Structure formats: C-alpha cells, structure tokens
Amino acid sequence: MCCDAAIITNSPPWLLASYPEGNLLQLTQEEIQILLAREGREKLFLQGITLAGTKCLLIRDNLYTEGNNTMDLRTKGQSRGSQAVTVVQIESVYLVVMGQKGTEGGPLNLKAFEMAGYIKEGF
Fold first, then answer.
1. What number is the average pLDDT over the span 27-37?
2. Closest Cα to residue 24, out of 50, 45, 43, 47?
3. Listed residue (44, 36, 26, 19) closest to 99, CA to CA
4. Helices then strands (H, E): number in the chain?
C-alpha cells in the first residue's frame, strides 16, 4: 500500500528520516515549512503544495484538528499517474506516507494513522 515514507519536524523544519530509495528523501526545508505552517493554510487548497519537487493537491486538511491530526494530498501532473499522500502529526514530529499508484486516500490515511500509533508507543 505504501511506497515511500518520511519523518519531518517543524522546529526547525527538517527531514529526520526517510525511505532511502524514495522521492521524499528530497523534501526541502522550505517545502516542510510551508506544509506545516499554521498560518495561511487556506492558500494550500487554492495553490496546492510541492513535496520533494512534486506538485500536490490538498484534499483534506485536519492536521491541526485535535483527535484527527491528518492531512490528505494527491500528486498531480505526473506521467506515471497520481498518488495519495497522507501526513500525520505524532507529538512534535510528522509522518509523511505516499501510497503506491492506485491506492486510494482513505485506506492510506487509515494505514498512516495506524503507523503513527506504533510510533507513539515508542515515545
């Protein structure tokens, strides 16, 4: 279901860990800062966001909604087809998971939320 993953933080905006052969390894500090900014989030729905150089559409933003803390995106404009992306807040870090081509956003969101639960147990 998942083909790529990364752990990022907001202070400072930084890539902490990623799948070594994945595209998310190329996440920039600027992309992370825009993704996790609390101000101006409504612009993300209109303008989209770039992750590791890949343009994404924002589908649902509950990243800072207590009890949910997830964001769903979809890559766009790629010859290989679009992919679902989910971001989950885990305490002070965030898990970014990219689904395999054809994976729907709903099941990916549930999988990412489940993965976040395992990570939380380690804190």
1. 96
2. 50
3. 19
4. 3, 7
